[in-house]
Design brief:
Layout lengths: L2 E4 L9 H16 L3 E4 L11 H14 L22 H13 L3 E4 L3 H7 L14 H9 L5 E4 L6 E5 L3 E5 L8 E3 L7 H11 L4 E5 L6 H10 L6 E5 L2 E2 L15 H6 L4 H9 L14 H7 L10 E2 L2 H14 L2 H14 L4 H6 L1 H11 L9 H9 L15 H17 L5 H15 L3 H13 L7 H28 L1
Parallel strand pairs: 1-2, 8-9, 10-11
Antiparallel strand pairs: 3-4, 4-7, 5-6
Helix pairs in contact: 1-10, 6-7, 9-11, 12-14, 14-15, 16-19, 17-19, 18-19
Bound molecules: glutamic acid (GLU).
Length: 478
């Protein structure tokens, strides 16, 4: 039975690189009919914040990931937050201590730094006398617990990276319990992976150097370590570690600027993994079916925002106008449209989305395109009509208005016929009529095709806007 976990530290928003780790774990679990566990690693008390835990959970859900066990869902190995498991770590720590596999260390940081030659701890407290211990105690020192690293080479057999050897003397005795009796990351991770029966540890390559320590702790407990798969890192387009310098690095930022979750899901899956035939667009089910750890690349993945944007526009095209309209509502609100206005124009918005769908890349593109249709208080800048002459334009519009009111079937071709006929009868160039009309209807000099625009707005709105425009232009003229 495959059991994997994603173990974020709630010290910030969900980073793209971590989201990718979560996704690979998810795909692997689902592919193998296994269990996906979410575990919150919050032992860094100063930097951890439950606000970040909530946001990480929200963003994982938004991405379309689901887990079988976790802090919110519970499960047979709960609790799933490390700070709620302190007793467990203490029990194991005591066990290692009593078996002579760990020892108390009383050294201060300054003492360690002073003695260190090649850096790191010199295992000083391994063999101190009882008298020395009493002296440290009487000085009020609080000990940490260190793991006694055995003299042996550690071999990591990694599913993605192959066999990696770590020399015996490359690891010093390291701290497993801090003086405040909170475990270090290394200890908590191993106890939890063991207790939660994790079979595969799939995580970023930045943890590879920690893995020999973890294997040694497993062995000290008399347990076989899980299998490891260290995923390549996620880099920015300039091939340095993806960071704030590259712009948006959290899932939340992409979500808030109108990326679709299934596009993000698809894109993240292609970071460091590819199918045999280099297919790019995959449904979730296809990804689950095709994913394998063996097919993951050893080389680092480049996060390319332009490619993500392309992928997103593909997904925008695949969605129905109704879905896009629904998803755009928060973005319309953000652009300043009242909810009631949006609701009133919902059908109009849907029609425009249908017409313009091919041009959308992200949901944030929607408000700008629908603006000419749903802006109720148009602020006409009459300067823009100067070249047609304002009194002339007003005259033309007031003459065409009764014709527009008369159109029976208010649809594109009928509207076009009437307007063209009007131009002919009055001996006007089409531009002299089309342009001012579009301007009266939208306040814009460029924009959607006039007849389409009028059909979508409908007769009432079209007439109302032209009348309002005439009122304003005449007032300004006097
Ligand atoms: N909490 C660790 C991190 O956020 C993950 C540890 C692991 O996956 O083993 O980097």
């Amino acid at each position: 039975m495959v059991r994997v976990r994603f173990a974020p530290s709630p010290t910030g928003y969900l980073h793209i690189g971590n989201a990718r780790t979560a996704l690979f774990n998810y795909l692997f679990a689902r592919k193998n009919n296994g269990v996906f566990v979410l575990r919150i690693e919050n032992t860094d008390v100063e930097r951890s914040n439950s606000r970040f835990e909530e946001s990480i959970i929200e963003d994982l859900k938004w991405l379309g990931l689901s887990w079988d066990e976790g802090p919110d869902t519970g499960g047979p190995y709960q609790p799933y937050r490390q700070m709620d498991r302190l007793n467990l770590y203490r029990e194991y720590a005591n066990r290692l201590l009593s078996e002579g596999k760990a020892y108390r260390c009383w050294c201060t940081r300054e003492e360690i730094e002073k003695r260190a030659k090649t850096g790191g701890y010199d295992n000083y407290c391994r063999n101190i006398s009882d008298a020395q211990i009493s002296k440290f105690q009487s000085e009020g020192r609080k000990p940490v617990l260190r793991f006694k690293v055995p003299e042996k080479e550690v071999i990591v057999k990694d599913i993605i990276r192959g066999t990696i050897r770590f020399e015996a003397d490359s690891i010093n005795d390291f701290v497993i319990m801090k003086s405040n009796e909170i475990p270090t990351f290394h200890f908590a991770v191993v106890i939890d992976d063991f207790e939660m029966k994790i079979t595969h540890v799939i995580r970023g390559e930045d943890h590879l150097s920690n893995t020999p320590k973890h294997i040694l702790i497993f062995e000290a407990l008399g347990q076989t370590p899980p299998q490891f798969a260290h995923m390549s890192m996620t880099l920015g387009p300039d091939r340095t570690r993806l960071s704030k310098r590259h712009g948006a690095t959290s899932v939340r930022q992409y979500r808030e600027s109108g990326f679709l979750s299934n596009a993000m899901f698809n894109y993240l899956a292609l970071l460091g993994w590819s199918s045999k035939d280099n297919q790019e667009i995959f449904s979730k089910q296809q990804l689950i079916q095709e994913f394998s750890l063996e097919a993951c690349n050893k080389s680092n993945a480049i996060f390319d925002p332009a490619k993500l944007l392309w992928m997103n526009s593909q997904y925008m095209k695949m969605k129905s106008a109704k879905e896009i309209t629904e998803l755009s509502i928060p973005f319309l609100e953000k652009a300043g449209y009242e909810k009631s206005n949006i609701e009133r124009h919902r059908q109009i918005i849907e029609k425009i989305v249908e017409l313009e769908k091919e041009k959308f890349r992200i949901l944030e593109d929607v408000p700008e395109r629908v603006a000419p249709y749903i802006t109720e208080d148009i602020d006409w800048n009459l300067q823009l009509l100067q070249k047609f002459g304002i009194p002339e334009t007003s005259k033309i519009l007031s003459e065409i208005l009764p014709e527009i009111k008369k159109i029976e079937q208010f649809e594109r071709s009928a509207i076009e016929n009437i307007i063209r006929k009007f131009c002919k009868e009055k001996n006007l160039k089409t531009g002299e009529v089309f342009h001012p009309l579009r301007f009266a209807l939208t306040g814009m000099t460029k924009g959607p095709g006039l007849f389409e625009l009028m059909e979508i707005l409908g007769r009432d709105v079209s007439v109302r806007r032209i009348e309002k425009f005439l009122k304003k232009s005449m007032k300004d003229d006097n």
